[in-house]
Amino acid sequence: MRRFLRNTVLVACLLALAPMLCAAPPATPAPTASAAARFAAYGQPGTFLLQRDGQRAQVVHGAALADTPLRPASTFKPMLALIALETGILKSADEIVPWNGKPYPDRPAWQRDMALREAMRTSSESYFGVLAERIGRERLAAWVQRVGYGNGRIGATPALAWHDGVLTVTARQQLAFVDRLRRGDLPFSAKTLAAVKAAMRDDDANGTRIYGKTGTHRDGDRTGNAWWIGWVEGPKGHASFVLGIDLSAADDRAMRTVLDKRIALGKQLLRDAGLLSK
Questions:
Q1: What family, per the record (predicted)?
Q2: Alpha-carbon span 160 to 162, nearest angstrom
Q3: Residues 74, 123, 124, 240: which is the catalytic one?
Q4: Cα 155 from Cα 152, distance rounded (Å)
């Protein structure tokens, strides 16, 4: 009788466990593509750096390019806006700066008077060229050194400072600058910092705010570099980022779509890092 009861209990236990024993194992999450694979699909070499809140800077991809001095191109424009507002040569972010009168056949949006938000969004060479000339070379050089931006050098013509090659910045230096801007750790007033950060607000994605600035430099001999720098703030965390692209091998067709592709690559890398929703 006791054996019968033991066997009955054993059978009951096995029947209770059967669904768990026979169930399929939990699905393994699909692996995230590596940063190297992302850049390979993009078709241009580059680097990607992250700095999460409270953590050290991380080179996710492209360690060699991360320390290569490059022209800042239009990623220098937030710095120009900070200096212009802090020194008062730009009275406010809403002040309308007149078009400099130069033709921009490839970028007709620059051929108009505008305020800071539109100038940052369109990356107007006219607007920021006017600011640079108002600031002047000596004052611009002094602020660049005070902030510790890039190599700290400014050429003879302020309106060419971000393209002439005298001022250079590495991706690692870019990350240090943009992370300090995000955290408000730059020698500018809270009002100035808030105005420039608001002008850089780019997009919202499922509750995450994205701030950014692109920059592209292209030489006549087909060499060049491109950037997307900024930060994200959201439920998945706050982090600053820098995407740098080597354009040396880019052909004309690639150049026509380089901006949209670059931002798409950067957002995918941010998703892979768990900072944007997939």
A1: Belongs to the class-D beta-lactamase family.
A2: 6
A3: 74
A4: 10
For the purposes of burial, counting CB atoms within 10 Å of the CB of 134, is it exposed (0-12), middle (13-18) or buried (19 or more)?
middle
* DSSP summary character for residue 70: B
Task: Kindly list the structural domains of the chain, giving each domain's residue range(s) and its CATH number in brackets, ordered by start.
Answer: 36-272 (3.40.710.10)
Give the model's pLDDT for residue 203. Answer: 79
In the residue annotation, 74 being an active-site residue is answered as: yes
- Provide the 3-class DSSP secondary structure of residue 149: coil
HEC per residue, 154-198: CCCCHHHCCCCCCCCECHHHHHHHHHHHHHCCCCCCHHHHHHHHH
Q: For residue 221, what are the contacts with CB-CB under 8 A and spacing of at least 6? A: none
* pLDDT score of 27 more than 80: no
Give the helix/strand (H/E) hosting 59: strand 58-61
Complete edge-to-edge strand list for the sheet that includes strand 224-234: 58-61, 46-52, 237-246, 224-234, 208-218, 201-205
140 sits in which H/E element: helix 137-147
